[in-house]
Write a structure and sequence with these properties.
Elements (H helix, E strand, L loop, with lengths): L4 E7 L5 H4 L28 H7 L1 H9 L12 H13 L4 E6 L2 H11 L16 E8 L2 E9 L4
Length: 152
């Protein structure tokens, strides 16, 4: 008998105007997968990285080097994002799940699934318009990265 399999296909949308201008995204929803919504950047949401760096250089530095640091105004730390995404993935029913998720959520999912240290979050690049597939079985996850999304 084969163990139950959970397959998650995370599609990363192409960069939108905000991403191209290096703005902190809002916690974008992920319909059907609340636990895979985008990271909450608190008071930084919608602002450019340059603006945040000019106003709060120490906060930005801490956010990029300390995975337990959360942006001011109710933001979410990288560690909290990884935990939330992991809890969602761990609770999925057997079968194949498809979600459109931002780059940060995909990085968090990979860190959680492969049991990497949280600092690895900053070392992963996720291509816009790509598919990342995670397959869970017997309490272990495998990763397939870099697939192109097939045309619909």
């Amino acid at each position: 008998m084969h163990p139950t399999v959970v397959r998650v296909r995370l599609l990363t949308p192409p960069l939108d105007e905000a991403a191209r201008s290096h703005r902190f995204p809002y916690g974008d929803p992920c319909p059907g997968h609340e636990g895979l919504r985008g990271q909450d950047h608190g008071a930084w949401a919608g602002r450019s990285m340059d603006d945040v760096a000019a106003e709060d250089p120490e906060g930005l530095r801490r956010w990029m080097t300390d995975t337990s640091y959360a942006p001011p105004g109710g933001g979410e730390s990288v560690e909290a994002l990884i935990a939330r995404v992991g809890a969602h993935l761990g609770a999925l029913a057997p079968g194949t799940h498809r979600a459109v998720a931002g780059q940060g959520v995909v990085r968090a999912a990979v860190v959680w699934a492969l049991e990497l240290p949280a600092a690895a979050f900053w070392r992963l690049d996720v291509r816009p318009g790509s598919v990342t597939t995670l397959t869970g079985r017997s309490g272990r996850w495998n990763l397939l990265v870099g697939q192109a999304e097939p045309p619909e």
